[in-house]
Amino acid sequence: RRSSDLNSLQLLVDALRAFAAERQWEQFHTPKNLACALSVEVAELLEHFQWMNEAQSQALTDSKKAEVSAEAADVFLYLLQLCDKLDIDLVAAARAKMQVNAEKYPTALARGTAAKYTDLSPE
Fold first, then answer.
1. Is-contact 77 44, C-beta < 8 A?
2. pLDDT by 10s per residue, the chain, length 123
3. What is the DSSP track for 4-71?
């Protein structure tokens, strides 16, 4: 399954490259510009949850979920484009980061707490 997921991801990156090329947008897709666009899209995603309480954020209507889905897709697509421009293997980077997080947040210390790793103690 992982191999097909990676193939799907590469197909998506290839489609993003073609989409931008057809529109001659590569000139605008610098790492800085893509990072800025990514930040804007993350803010647009967050905007859907602004002023909601926790229960509301977990019980989105179908129409709200569709809006959130579209924003999440924008975030994902810009992140893929940024990583493509910088030759970052996003899947490998994510796996490496999960390993770092596992070391920072050992199960015995982190279970059931939202404390930052610097505040975890073996007490």
1. no
2. 566 776 899 999 999 999 999 999 999 999 999 999 999 999 999 999 999 999 999 999 999 999 999 999 999 999 999 999 999 999 999 999 999 999 999 999 999 999 999 999 876
3. HHHHHHHHHHHHHHHHHHHTT-GGG--HHHHHHHHHHHHHHHHHTTTT--HHHHTS--HHHHHHHHHH
Comparing CA positions, the residue from 39, 55, 59 lying closest to residue 47 is: 39
Quickly count: other Cβ atoms within 10 Å of residue 80's Cβ: 19
CB-based contacts of 67, cutoff 8 Å, min separation 6: 48
Q: Which residues contact 18 (CB under 8 A, 6 or more apart)?
A: none
Q: Can you give the pTM of this predicted structure?
A: 0.88
CB 26 within 8 A of CB 78: no
Q: Report the distance separating Cα 14 and Cα 87, nearest Å.
A: 13
Q: Hey, is 81 helix, strand or coil? A: helix
Angle between helix 2-22 and helix 90-104 axes, rounded to 10 deg? 130
